[in-house]
Amino acid sequence: MLEATEVKKSPYVIEWRDGFKIGVPQVDQEHRHLFTLVRALNLASVDQTVEELLDYVVTHFSNEQEMMEKSGYPAFEQHLRLHEEFAAQVADFLGNGEAWTEDRVQELRRFLNKWLIGHIMTHDLRFGKWHASHAVVAPPVIQQTTPASVGFFARLFGSK
Ligand SMILES: [Fe+2]
User: Fold this and answer.
1) Residue 31 backbone dihedrals phi, psi, to 5 degrees
2) What is the pLDDT, as a whole number, of residue 10?
3) Are 60 and 143 in contact (CB under 8 A)?
4) pLDDT tens by residue, the chain, 160 residues
5) Closest Cα to residue 108, out of 59, 40, 154, 159?
6) Exposure check for the chain: N or C terminus, fewer CB within 10 A?
7) CB 148 within 8 A of CB 66
8) How far apart are CA 9 and CA 12, in angstroms?
9) d(Cα 142, Cα 59) in Å, to the nearest integer?
10) Nearest Cα to 112, choosing from 28, 44, 50?
11) CA 8–ligand 1 middle distance (angstroms)
């Protein structure tokens, strides 16, 4: 039964495309890298790739949130909550104690791709449009992840 399931499934892959751009180069570049990391998820090195992916998610969320907050984006708080909800969903998935299988890796990849596309094309795009119509006098400084900015993730995933 398990074998039949595994044989018929091909890897679930959604490639980055220019249609996912929101027009903010730094954000677009980071989103593109997220797709690359999701694509790299595989059973052979799943712990390593999941860790790398989560680290980058934290960095990206922090950068995006910093940009929104500093530019005075009105929906910043709402957007922050969406990121936190995502973190909670990932934490639930990873914390359910199940062993990794090809199916579970595919399930994670599918979830991540779908969430990313839905989030980018709705909420990040909204920011992109707002950003384009509100000239920023000084470009926001992109900062690397700091311990304070990973607070919500650290709480959810525990300290490593
Ligand atoms: Fe976002």
Assistant:
1) -60, -40
2) 63
3) no
4) 445 554 455 667 889 999 999 999 999 999 999 999 999 999 999 999 999 999 999 999 999 999 999 999 999 999 999 999 999 999 999 998 899 999 999 999 999 999 999 999 999 999 999 999 985 555 556 666 555 445 555 555 554 4
5) 40
6) N
7) no
8) 8
9) 10
10) 50
11) 34
Q: How far is the CA of 9 from the centre of ligand 1 (A)?
A: 30
d(CA 13, CA 90): 19
Could you list which residues have their CB under 5 Å from ion ligand 1?
Answer: 124
Instruction: Give the type of residue at 115.
Output: W
Superfamily for domain range 23-131: Hemerythrin-like (1.20.120.50)
| DSSP state for residue 122 in the 8-state scheme | I
**Distance of alpha carbon 79 from alpha carbon 147, whole angstroms:** 20
Ligand 1 centroid to residue 122 C-alpha, Å: 9
Residue corresponding to tokens 């979830």: 111
Domain ranges of the chain: 23-131
Q: Which amino acid is at 38?
A: V
Query: How far is the centre of ligand 1, averaged over its atoms, from the C-alpha of 123 (Å)?
Result: 6
